[in-house]
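ok so i was messing around last nite and threw this chain in just to see what happens. nothing serious, just curious
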Amino acid sequence: MTHPAAIPSSSASSNAPSTGEAPKRQRRPPRRVEVSKIEILSPAMRRITLKGAELEGFPVTGPASYIKLIFPEPGQTEPTRPLPDGPRAVSMRTYTPLVVRPEALEVDVDFVLHGEGPASTWAAQAAVGQVLFLMGPGPGYAVDTAATQHLLIADDSALPAVETILAALPATAHAQVLLEVISNAEQRVLHSAAQLDVRWLARGTDHRTAGEPLAKALRALPSIATEARIYLACEAAAMRRIRQLLIDDLGVSRSQIVGRGYWKLDVVNHPDHDYGDDA
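result:
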């Protein structure tokens, strides 16, 4: 989900030596934000509103875009502001900005409480006034508003991205949504102008079964429309298995699928540009 490496301008000197390395991506400046509101959506999901004067000029981007949040290290009351060319912050994680309110200088972010980890641990104890640094946004998912059939396949980590996609669909669209969550207590109403068919699939607390309920539900579908646009986002290995299931067993064209590996079992810092097209 990160920007691709920049392509050098054609006006650059042809005599410049080649290092064989991609140009370094320009980091967006960090923005200091404070928690202004906390909403409990379900036992494992918190919606936290981040607010701050440094959100002035923060752009409203498309569905399933991403931001980076930098969390305090142990012993800190707030994170250290990262330098533009300094090392990557240790406790930095990728999230979807659910709603951006430029006039109020606010961004809403949903957090899954999945156990140990800098972000989950912080979100479980978050309080109004606590400080984070926010970087981004990065690009998201280009919704084909002309398509009438959409299939969204995701686990709880990608639920906020799914919600932003649903919000972008027109009333002429039909969206079939498969959502894998910890338990049935995570179910809630999803909103969209489109016609929705939502199935919540309980995985349980064993993360090693990630993706199994999604795969089972897909195999039970009567059919997938040949013109359907498919967004697939979940644990990285599960995403690859489901992608191949769609292609090899269910007859879906590769061009119909956009895949995102939102997290990876037993990996602390999974890259945010895992598209699964190496499967």
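not much to say yet. Helices lie at 118-125, 159-168, 212-219, 236-249.
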